[in-house]
Amino acid sequence: MICGLLLAALSACGGAAVRHGSDGTSGAAGGRGGTSPSAAPTTGVPGVGDRLQRRIPAVSRQVVAVYGDGKDSADAIVVLYARRGPSWERVRSWRGHNGKKGWTAEHHAGDNRSPVGVFTLTDAGGVLADPGTRLPYTRSASFAAPRWWARSHWHDFDYVIAIDYNRVKGAPPDDPTRPEGEEKGGGIWLHLDHGSGTSACVSLSRAAMEQLLRTLDPDRHPVVVMGDRAALKA
Questions:
Q1: Exposed / middle / buried, residue 106 (Cβ in 10 Å: 0-12, 13-18, 19+)
Q2: pLDDT tens digits for 174-207?
Q3: Over the Cα atoms of the chain, what is R_g?
Q4: What are the beta bridge partners of residue 80?
Q5: In total, how many domains does the chain have?
Q6: What are the angstrom distances between the C-alpha of 121 and each of 61, 70, 87, 168?
Q7: What is the Cα–Cα distance from 97 to 101, expressed in whole angstroms?
Q8: Which residues make beta-bridge pairs with 89?
Q9: pLDDT tens digit sequence for 64-95
Q10: How open is the CA angle 12-61-94, to the nearest 5 degrees?
Q11: Half-sphere exposure of 130 (CA within 13 A, CB side)
């Protein structure tokens, strides 16, 4: 009954594309920081190895880091970082959930695992009115979870932020287009938590989602860096 049932009704959480149907401390993006050639190099996002650090765009000034408890675990810690000079400052952290079967570097539709990687965050939406985000926001009743789901899941998509995995940037989160094909999955979001794992999305409390929506700024080129701890460090 969790997020994967969007296969039948929404285009989200790693399901097939059907329109209208869904530990860190403080720390920097890979590359050099500062404003002059003599400036100190940036420090890395805590717990993230060189492989993924290099995928964080140099222009990014906001990172949402999702630290999965283990490869096969649905539990995670989510940390929001902001770039301050050559370093990343921890803004806030929350408990959350990821795919109910854990993580994978080769995500495909229906595997119930969240994809490991670095993805931009460009679009948001949900059932509820825009809480004050700078991201493009699409409000629509089509985001609502089906009422034949368990009541605990009814508000999962009150707020969502699209993770730019196999989707068209600039489109609403529930846009069904899959540029790399249906088998690769898509519709992977940050959304409200229901207390357990998803089919591929990352879920957080309502308060956490509201803070992210009010804080993420397109001018700061936010990205999500996500995976189990071992994969993040590799």
A1: exposed
A2: 999 999 999 999 999 999 999 999 999 999 999 9
A3: 17
A4: 64, 92
A5: 1
A6: 12, 24, 21, 11
A7: 11
A8: 82
A9: 999 999 999 999 999 999 999 989 999 999 99
A10: 55
A11: 11
**Percent of the chain topping pLDDT 70:** 82
SS3 149: coil
Cα–Cα–Cα angle for 217, 103, 26, rounded to 5 degrees: 45
Tokens 């789901």 label which residue? 149
Alpha carbon of 69 to those of 27, 115, 120, 122: distances in Å? 19, 14, 22, 26
The separation between the first and the last C-alpha atoms of the chain, rounded to the nearest angstrom, is: 33
Residue 19 pLDDT greater than 70, yes or no:
no
- Tokens at 60, concatenated: 């990014």
Cα dihedral 86, 219, 178, 186 sign: positive
Could you read off the pLDDT of 107-117 as tens digits, one per residue? 999 999 999 99
Sheet containing 117-120, strands listed edge to edge, beginning at the edge strand earlier in sequence: 117-120, 223-228, 62-68, 75-84, 87-97, 202-204, 189-192, 160-162, 124-126, 137-139
**In what helix (H) or strand (E) does residue 218 lie, and over which residues does it extend?**
none
Task: Write out the residue range of the structural domain in which residue 101 sits.
Answer: 3-233
The 10 Å CB-count burial string (b at 16+, else e) for 121-130 is bbbbbbbbeb
